[in-house]
Amino acid sequence: MMQQKSQQSPNAIVIGAGPAGSYTALRLATLGIETNVYEEHAKIGLPSHCAGHLSIRSLKKIGYYPLPKGIIENTFDAANFYSPLGTQFSIHLKKPVTCALNRAKFDQYIANQAQQAGAVFHLGHTVQSLQIEHDYVKGVNLKDGTQVSSKITLDAEGISSRLLRQTRLRGITEKSLVYAVEAEIDKVHDVELHSVEVYMGSSAPGFYGWLIPRPDGTAKLGLAVSHGNPQTYLRYLMTKHPVAKRQVKGAKIVQANYHAIPLTGPIDRTYDNGFLAVGDVASQVKPTTGGGVIFSLTCGEIAANVVKSTIELGDVSAKTLSVYQKRCNKTLSFDISFMLRLRQFLNSLSDKRLDSVLRFCNRFGVAEALADVEEIDYQGQMLLHVATKPAVISALGYFGLLYLFANP
After folding, report:
1. Quick one: angle between helices 318-348 and 379-386, nearest 10?
2. Cα–Cα distance for residue pair 66/378, rounded to 1 Å
């Protein structure tokens, strides 16, 4: 039997040093809460499982734009959307609204901030299980046999939900996932440097594909699918898609990573006695694009504030911690509800109908109506901003009819 060891007990333990975990630790430490972070990998940010395509507006809101040199790889003021038949719909915005980050460097930047604020990081330390006594999470057991107690444990382990399932909470279900491949390719052709390419429909069923160029001529190429092998679809995209095959002709995949993305909105309950779930493990992810960084950081800050108040009260019961979910829902629920409906609409379209949607958008001036959009994370709010424009009203009516015919 492995000998049990103990470490000094912090007030809070954070499991995982991805953006959600490190940012939550940063906010906790900034509030004066003694915090330990346990990360199973030896280096933060690796392997990278995300394209790092984020909203500039949202990064500014949380104080992360501009960022230190080397983290931002490119900025974008345009996007081109393609049907599997090759029809193109393009949006050109009045200024850059998104940027592509080097995710490893970004993750490391947040972690360094957290350490400077006082959080203690333990890299290469796998949390084997939670310590649970009388239905309360009291800390963690590490794989090496070490026991670490805490007043509260925050789970930012990612979508595996392995530890979360040891509580009374229900984790992410398999049916809520799409499966992604993220590849680095060495060259692209005939693409706009400041435009993201998006491949829709059966090219990536249940989601979409993307091409994110860099100034040095390399790019991030990826897709996710609700069924089938993403690697097979990526190969098809590179060799058969009427547009993508030209853009990546002769390109080599330098590196590829695989991961899953939850798309059905936050899990039903994100809190238990002495326990909170933050980030992908709580499915705090946009159902339309699969982006989870901004929502995770937003909820991480909410979590830290709730933890501070509950520790001061001396009450970390589920009843007291439930305010965390209430605050997250107040911040996200409207936009997530809209995005869930939009995802359902997109998934209902056949390739032929998707092609007609893009042609409609071209014909009725939808791109011009969206030219001043800056908000892309909170997409329900974005719709309210443009909903009174004639082109958008026409588009919504048309899309509504298509959805009704697809779902009688």
Report:
1. 60
2. 20
CATH code of the domain containing 159:
3.50.50.60
pLDDT in tens, 104-133: 999 999 999 999 999 999 999 999 999 999
160 and 31 co-located in one domain: yes
User: Residue 363 belongs to what domain range?
Assistant: 347-406
Number of domains in the chain: 3
Q: At what angle do helices 293-313 and 318-348 cross, to 10 degrees?
A: 170
User: Which tokens sit at 45?
Assistant: 């940010």
CATH number at residue 256: 3.30.9.10
Whole-angstrom distance, CA of residue 383 vs CA of residue 38: 40
Question: What contacts 181, CB < 8 A, 6 or more positions away?
Answer: 222, 223, 224, 230, 231, 234, 256, 257, 258
Please check whether residues 308 and 217 belong to one and the same domain: no
d(CA 297, CA 20) in angstroms, rounded, equals 5
Provide the mean pLDDT of the chain: 94
Cα–Cα dist 21/121, whole Å: 11
Cα four-point dihedral sign 292, 271, 304, 25: negative
Angle of helix 390-406 relative to helix 318-348, nearest 10 degrees, comes to 90
- What is the rounded distance in angstroms from the CA atom of residue 290 to the CA atom of residue 335? 14
Q: Tell me, yes or no, whether 67 lies in a domain.
A: no
Q: Do residues 230 and 374 both lie within one domain? A: no
